[in-house]
Amino acid sequence: MKISLEWLAEYVEFLEDDPQKIAAAITAHTAEVDEVEVQGALLDHCCVGKILTLDKHPNADKLQLCSVLTDKGEKPVVCGGANLRVGMRVAFAHVGASVKWHGEQELMTLEPIKIRGEQSEGMICAAEELDIDDLFPECTGHDIVDLGDGDENVGKPLKEVLGLDDVILHIDNHAITHRADLFSHIGFAMECAAIGIAKWKDMPEMKTPEFPSDPLPFNFRVTAEGIIPRYCACLLSIDNVGETPEYMKRRLAAVGIRSISLPIDITNYVMLEVGVPMHSFEADDIKGDCIARVSKEGEPLQTLDGQEWKLPEGALVFSDDDGNFEGYRGCGRDVT
């Protein structure tokens, strides 16, 4: 389980700045912290650069000579990126930066170097070379990180621009299966206050929303009462779904959740924040009634990433009368 210290800081003020000491206190009192992940660990000597000129390398067909505007002036770079263009903003690593050469796990410290007789002072990076391929999955291999054209943020620290200033605690949750309150960020925030490494912030009052009393356009049946005692649903009509806010995408990514669409992202965010599982479905796709039941051995399930899975016997599933739900795709229709 992954817990974001930035997320916890919405609820508590930490009395200790060192993430390692926070992790040690949690390990001593609550659950073992397997890893302390510092975001943007390879970005300390990196900035947003802008390609000013591109010329063919005289001694290599697949390499280009670039002039890159950085926070330290213009830098000459030899690069083999397939998607380079003049005016492009890039992830630039200065001499002295540590990078994963071609995505390998072993780190390499950049030095001034001549490549096929041409001077290169720094590196225009693909995402995996800076360990940010979760943010730029399409900018890997021969494609370098593409931050678009223009002058915005050119010369600024890449870590700051990407908002990678969080610390993620990897919690071994096997020892806290009896602590349902800890399977959420609010729960861990309370725990940090309880063990004395943080103090609780005064939170603003939240109004309880009013829900309509109109009946849902379907019935909900629970056939697995020993597993799920209760299930609640409401109907929302959404005219314009909109985009997921960047802070929400960033926090979801930090704890290992892929952003899909605003309704799905909201339900995942709430689940991770308060520990209540939530799901959203397109109301028009529900055929007949909704049923909470247990699965049959080998029953197929397709997840939102397109993968097919075979369920074991007795897993808890939610389905309609046709046997499945289609995940919400962000079309702007009614959802539950």
Give a description of the structure.
The chain is an alpha+beta fold. 15% of the residues lie in helices and 25% in strands. It is built from 6 helices and 19 strands. The chain has helices spanning 5-8, 19-29, 158-162, 185-194, 246-254, 262-274; strands at 2-4, 12-14, 33-38, 46-56, 64-70, 73-79, 89-93, 98-100, 107-109, 113-115, 118-120, 123-124, 167-171, 198-200, 220-222, 290-294, 300-302, 308-310, 316-320. The strands form 7 sheets. A 5-stranded antiparallel β-sheet has the order 6-5-4-7-12. It has a 3-stranded antiparallel β-sheet with strand order 1-13-3. A hairpin with a 2-residue loop joins strand 10 (113-115) and strand 11 (118-120). Helix 5 (246-254) crosses helix 6. The radius of gyration is 25 Å and the shape is globular. The two termini are 27 Å apart. The relative contact order is 0.15.
Summary keywords:
336 residues; alpha+beta; five-stranded antiparallel beta sheet; three-stranded antiparallel beta sheet; 6 helices
Q: Please list the strands of the largest sheet in the order they lie side by side.
A: 6-5-4-7-12
Rg, nearest Å: 25 Å
Helix proportion of residues, in percent?
10-25%
- Taken in chain order, the helices and strands follow as EHEHEEEEEEEEEEHEHEEHHEEEE
Uncertain segments are 326-336
Average of per-residue pLDDT values: 88
Global structural class? alpha+beta
Shape: globular
| Strand elements, count | 19
Number of helices: 6
Question: In percent, how much strand structure appears in the residues?
Answer: 15-25%
Biggest beta sheet summary? 5 strands, antiparallel
Cα distance spanning the termini: 27 Å
